[in-house]
Amino acid sequence: MRGVPVVFPHLIDEDIKFLADISSGEFVESESETRDNWGQSRVAQHVGLQGLNWYVTARLLWDPHQDLDVLLDDYYTRFYGPAQEPMRQVFTYLEGLWLDPSRHSDQPWRTMMTPSDVTLVFRWLREARRLAAGTEYQPRVEWMLDEFQIVRN
């Protein structure tokens, strides 16, 4: 596997809430980039896989005292509509993998996700595709299916 989805909204919540009353601001760096053939242009990659982290970060920086569960419900409902439950399962599972210290190594792309993990996540993504079929949410689910292919390469 070439890529590892990095999902950790609960750590973001914990960090921002901890810093809320002692920080006068935060710098957020969140990138996954590539350069064009000339080494000049930078383009964010895998925005769908990073979107939940960005959403949680932005919303909590705006108001650090918000309830994370309410934010997550809002995200899944508004972004995935009828496919919200399998998409919630995807992100919850990926976060669990990321937070499991036994999955970390000096080569996380080899140890973070097993083939059975990948199969399970794709099963949820295909279910999300089925539920979103023919709706405005379908392209978002397809986007995630496309981006998640990185774990197979």
Structural overview:
The chain is mainly alpha-helical. A hairpin with a 6-residue loop joins strand 1 (33-35) and strand 2. The model has no long low-confidence stretch (mean pLDDT 85). Helix 4 (84-99) runs antiparallel to helix 6 (115-132) and helix 6 (115-132) packs antiparallel against helix 7 (138-148). It has a two-stranded antiparallel ribbon. The longest helix has 18 residues, at 115-132. It has helices spanning 9-19, 47-62, 68-80, 84-99, 108-111, 115-132, 138-148; strands at residues 33-35, 42-44.
The low-confidence runs, each spanning 5 or more residues with pLDDT under 50, are none
Radius of gyration: 16 Å
The protein's oligomeric status is single chain
Number of E-state strands:
2
Count of separate DSSP helical elements: 7
Please list the strands of the largest sheet in the order they lie side by side: 1-2
Give a short account of the largest sheet.
2 strands, antiparallel
Class per helix and strand makeup? mainly alpha
**Global geometry:** globular
Proportion of residues in extended strands: under 5%
End-to-end distance, in Å? 5 Å
- What's the helix-strand series? HEEHHHHHH
